[in-house]
Design goal:
The structure holds 2 protein chains of 2 kinds.
Chain A (H helix, E strand, L loop, with lengths): L7 E12 L3 H10 L5 E13 L4 E5 L6 H9 L6 E6 L3 E4 L12 H11 L4 H15 L14 H13 L5 E5 L7 H16 L3 E5 L3 H7 L2 E6 L2 E7 H12 L19 H9 L7 H15 L26 E3 L4 E9 L8 E3 L3 E10 L3 E11 L5 E6 H5 L3 E3 L4 E9 L5 E11 L5 E14 L23 H12 L1
Parallel strand pairs in A: 3-7, 3-8, 5-6, 6-7, 12-19
Antiparallel strand pairs in A: 1-2, 1-4, 8-9, 10-19, 11-13, 13-17, 14-15, 14-16, 14-18, 18-19
Helix pairs in contact in A: 3-4, 3-5, 4-5, 7-8
Chain B lengths: L3 H9 L1 H15 L7 H22 L11 H22 L2 H4 L1 H6 L6 H11 L2 H14 L10 H25 L3 H12 L14 H9 L1 H15 L5 H25 L3 H4 L1
Helix pairs in contact in B: 2-7, 3-4, 3-8, 4-7, 4-8, 4-9, 4-10, 4-12, 7-9, 9-13, 12-13
The chains are: A alpha/beta, B mainly alpha.
Chain lengths: 478, 263
């Protein structure tokens, strides 16, 4: 491996598919060098740089050029113009079961697949056991590939592909069919790869995957790099892009390193609250539900877990939606002295609080807080409904102060708080602010750094004398 | 020299080529009771039919001929059938393996190579049969030792043609049907089935201009005439084979970058 320098570097990468009215035209064109085609531009002046040991995610809607980009980097497609420099052995998982024959057994397919991927037979023989173990298909490895479920096929494909020990790994959605546990295992393996300084390029529609595993992400839109930056803000931006809050044309300036388009959008979201809200109503509702992939809106807590949204940058990247029947105006995390804080000792007492200005009568109000971790998983949540089993009746003009006093038993880490108010009756959201509060917990320090919670544990080891044991054993024998 | 490139590919990917050839032969008859037996049995069966036809049904006596004319026919038919086999398959090699071409980092040069080898290999048994038959009918001489050379030359030509047809077939899909038509005609455009004594003058010209004739003449010299009866063919055939490979490889190398777009 040539040690330094980027693993992948692209400058002004362009791909135009040539479309021919008649298939013969392509041949004639190659021979005569006279153009006989029309062009469809799939990628246009894409700049890209991936350092070694970096995991980069690519987001983009269907047809944005993701697969084209991956194929060009993998080398199965030629780019039309631009510069592409790649250093390192590439393995691409672009499709499931490629080079795999349905009639052959899993074992035979590993051998063939390995050869196709450029391994020698001796290398495959050496690795086949670990491949089978990784795929967890030992029981069925000698049965035909066609009898495998999609997930099993994905597992075998992935296990074979990664056995090449690539310096650059390209994965196109292939993992999404594996079950959650296998996905975790694959990502664990990808992390290991990263530690060995390998570069990973990942396409996924699951923004959770991107935020969890990628150092950076870039969004492709209409064949261009629309935005590029830290994974988390990119997923938020992508979410907005997907549901039409940011239009590509309005934000098509190249080289947007962060997401400046967010700010005006946010304003336009907040502005009409309380005023003309009918048009606001449909959009964010649909957006959040579609994004979460779950239909019904459960008041606050659960529905706030819309898997996409989360933001490190409170000012600019927050997602806010709701009917506007009431508006959240003031919120924060407060310590015991009632001071706003964003850093809190694990085990300390603290309070979440927010104020809700009601603009209409709300006879069935549900409101509360939910804490999410970095991956967007809701790890705690509470509303007046979950707390007291009853909704709250508020009148227009009321200003409610809602607070939850608690002891922070979370372990070391960064967390995000979603605030929400909703109607209990039909689940309509009134005002939701994703990731309104960000705070950091400094852990107890005595436990695993990977711990999620602080169980206020007290550890001890005591010695039992050997004599006592033999005495006890004798006693038992008699 | 550019001509060494295809051989370097074969050497570098030899394990893959071996495995792909094995697999192709197996795949053709997958799920059949006799399986791979068909791959070898089919050419042998054809040989038996030609033997029956030309030794018993239409026995031909050639004035001043070296021996049983059936041997001449068998040798010619054998070399042509093997070649025809690759012609029939080559045009669709890449289209039928589109996923390999497009989806993974795969040395697609091996595909035409393995197709040519997989086409030739099943004729090995038929070749043994033909040699035995010619031995039994007294046309076998020391010329039999040129057979390995002829096999190599024909394989080189077959690989070259496979490269050409494979890559052109992607851009020009009609090629497949053209080749099919060509194959059915070409059997009669070679000096195989004709009694040399009763040959119209025009056919002599056809043979001279048909590149496949030189291959047939070489094979006939080796196993039927038992001497270098067509010295020109022994120059034209190997050189032509090498040229075919050089052109095929160059064409393939030039066009392969565009394959991803076309499939």
């Amino acid at each position: 491996m040539s040690s330094l320098g980027p693993a992948i570097r692209a400058r002004g990468l362009r791909k135009a598919y040539r479309q021919y009215a008649n298939p013969v035209d392509s041949l004639l064109e190659l021979i005569t060098q006279a153009p006989r085609h029309s062009e469809r531009v799939a990628l246009d002046s894409v700049d890209l740089e991936l350092k070694r040991g970096e995991i980069v995610g690519i987001l983009g809607r269907n047809g944005a050029g993701k697969s084209t980009l991956l194929k060009i980097i993998a080398g199965t497609l030629e780019h039309t113009s631009g510069v592409l420099e790649i250093s390192g052995r590439i393995t691409a998982i672009l499709e499931l079961g490629t080079g795999f024959h349905p009639e052959y057994t899993g074992r035979e397919n590993i051998r063939m697949g390995g050869l196709c991927l450029g391994m020698s037979r001796a290398e495959i023989d050496r690795k086949i056991d670990s491949i089978i173990d990784f795929s967890e298909l030992r029981d069925v490895i000698d049965q035909p590939f066609k009898t495998y479920s999609t997930g099993m096929q994905a597992r075998l494909t992935f296990s074979t592909a990664i056995s090449v020990e690539p310096e650059i790994l390209i994965v196109d959605e292939a993992l999404s069919v594996g079950d959650a546990r296998f996905q975790m295992k694959c990502f664990g393996w990808i992390q290991k790869l990263k530690q060995r300084n390998a570069t990973v390029l990942l396409v996924s529609h699951d923004t959770n995957t991107i935020t969890t595993f990628c150092d950076r992400a870039l969004i492709l839109e209409k064949g261009r790099v629309f935005a590029e930056g830290d994974a988390k803000p990119m997923t938020v931006l992508y979410h907005n892009l997907l549901f039409g809050k940011v239009t590509a044309s309005a934000a098509a300036q190249p080289d947007t390193s962060r997401a400046p388009e967010m700010a005006p959008c946010e304003d336009s979201r907040l502005g009409p609250f309380g005023g003309g809200k009918s048009d606001l109503n449909a959009d964010p509702e649909g957006a959040s539900d579609a994004a979460a992939g779950t239909a019904p809106s459960v008041p606050i807590g659960a529905s706030a877990s819309s898997s996409t949204a989360s933001s490190a940058d409170q000012a600019s990247n927050r997602i806010r939606y709701g009917s506007g029947d009431a508006v959240l105006v003031d919120w924060g995390l407060y310590d015991e002295q009632n001071r706003t804080c964003s850093l809190i000792q694990s085990g300390a007492k603290c309070r979440f609080a927010m104020r809700l200005e009601c603009r209409k009568d709300i006879p069935d109000l549900s409101c509360g807080f939910a804490i999410k971790d970095r991956k967007g998983t809701v790890i705690w949540g509470e509303t007046n409904v979950t707390h007291a089993q009853a909704s709250f009746s508020a009148r227009a003009g009321d200003v409610l102060t809602i607070a939850s006093d608690l002891t922070m038993w979370l372990a070391d880490g960064d967390y995000f708080v979603t605030l929400g108010a909703a109607h209990v009756a039909d689940g309509t959201k009134i005002d939701f602010i994703e990731d309104a509060i960000q705070f950091r917990v400094v852990g107890p320090g005595r436990i695993f750094t990977t711990s999620l919670v602080n169980l206020d544990s007290h550890f001890s080891i005591s010695t039992t004398q050997a004599d006592d044991i033999s005495a006890a054993l004798q006693g038992a024998a008699e | 020299m550019a001509l060494s490139a295809p051989f370097e590919t074969i050497v570098r990917h030899r394990e893959l080529v071996v495995e792909l050839v094995k697999r192709e032969l197996k795949d053709r008859h997958v799920g059949q009771a006799l399986g791979v037996v068909w791959a070898y049995g089919h050419p042998l069966l054809l040989m038996l039919i030609y033997t029956f036809l030309f030794a018993y049904v239409f026995p031909t006596r050639v004035a001043g001929g070296e021996g049983d004319f059936a041997v001449s026919v068998l040798v010619g038919v054998l070399s042509w059938l093997a070649f025809q086999d690759v012609l029939g398959r080559a045009t669709t090699i890449l289209a039928s393996q589109a996923s390999l071409v497009k989806q993974i980092v795969f040395p697609i040069e091996v595909l035409p190579i393995k197709t040519a080898i997989a086409s030739a290999l099943p004729y090995s048994l038929a070749l043994v049969f033909t040699i035995v038959y010619s031995a039994l009918h007294g046309t076998l001489t020391a010329m039999v030792f040129t057979v390995p050379f002829l096999i190599a030359a024909q394989l080189v030509a077959m690989i070259g043609v496979a490269f050409m047809l494979a890559v052109i077939g992607v851009f020009f899909r009609d090629l497949r049907d053209l080749v099919t038509v060509f194959c059915s005609i070409n059997l009669f455009a070679q000096p195989i089935l004709y009694n040399p004594d009763a040959l119209p003058a025009v056919m002599k010209w056809v043979f001279l201009f048909n590149p496949f004739s030189y291959q047939v003449w070489c094979w006939q010299d080796a196993l039927y005439h038992g001497r270098f009866a067509h010295p020109v063919a022994w120059v034209v055939f190997p050189l032509g084979a090498a040229a075919t490979l050089a052109v095929g490889w160059a064409l393939f190398a030039r066009l392969k970058h565009h394959l991803g777009d076309m499939l």
